[in-house]
Amino acid sequence: MSRSQPTTPTKQERREAAREKARQLREAQARREKRNRMLLIGGVIVFVVLVGLAIYAIVAGSGTKPLEDVGEAPAGATESGAITVGAQGAGTVNEGAPELDIYVDYLCPYCAQFEMVNGQDVTELVEAGEVTANIHPVSFLDRSSDYTGFSTRGAQATAVVAELAPDRLLDFHVALFEAQGPGGGVDLTNSQIAEAGRSIGLDSEVTDRFGGDNFKDWVLAATGQARSDGVTATPTILLDGEEFVDWTTPGALAEAIAAANS
């Protein structure tokens, strides 16, 4: 039995086969290009959506006022999260005097340095009616305090003093740093905060409220307000709304306040 020999494709068949192969390649390429276009379009859409959401968050966030919904605020509390202090204590202002905003975290070593350099001058100028101090107690550093929450607890105690012993606020403000010793940056327990209060004559009616819930929400909201207002570090010092940076030079802040009064 004879075996048939394979038939050699004709020239026409080879052309048709080549054209078919080319058609298949073109279709495959077209499918790849279509898929790539769809992926690109999808990526652009996702990007645009994400950018839009980010812009919305920024715009929406810029108009937020964290303190609006806080029910309990201490005496002298302002819309910017400060406690005003004039010659008559917390909740008063020195009419016609320049305003000194002090953003303070009681765990901050640089705030302790500010107090060491300028604390006595500020107290004397406030008591003399030469400046109104706006104390902004914030809790930026709670995460760096082994989760004891001293930044919040110190600020909460300050708010309690503003409410119940307004004439002792600046004394207590100083006492919180003195209780930490030179350099600051020391977590104080509630007992140590209370002891700082007793050292300036506060009674148990005041100190027993340290570490409690009184004004805690206000402290957290005031901290959020500071961030919303662009404050990212402590101490941040503003004199009549302008940042004052030369606070490490003894006497420089007092001179600037005197110049603002002239």
Summarize the structure.
The chain has a 6-stranded mixed sheet with strand order 2-1-4-3-5-6, with helices on both faces. Mean pLDDT is 84; it is low at 46-64.
Report on the architecture of this protein:
- This protein is an alpha+beta fold and 262 residues long.
- The protein is built from eight helices and six strands.
- It is elongated.
- The termini are far apart.
- Note the total helix count: 8
Shape descriptor reads elongated
**Low-pLDDT segments, ≥5 res:** 46-64
Structural class: alpha+beta
Cα distance, first to last residue?
126 Å
The percentage helix is 40-55%
What letter string, H or E per element, gives the SSE order? HEEEHEHHHHHEEH
Instruction: Average the pLDDT over all residues and give the rounded result.
Output: 84
Provide the spatial order of strands within the biggest beta sheet: 2-1-4-3-5-6
Cα-based radius of gyration, to the nearest Å: 34 Å
Percentage of residues in strands: 5-15%
Tell me the total number of β-strands: 6
- Largest sheet data: 6 strands, mixed
Keywords:
single chain, 262 residues, alpha+beta, 6-stranded mixed sheet, 8 helices, elongated
Helices and strands, with pairings:
Elements: H1 11-62, E1 83-86, E2 89-90, E3 99-104, H2 109-127, E4 132-137, H3 150-164, H4 169-178, H5 190-198, H6 204-207, H7 216-228, E5 236-239, E6 242-243, H8 252-261
Helix pairs in contact: 2-4, 3-4, 3-7
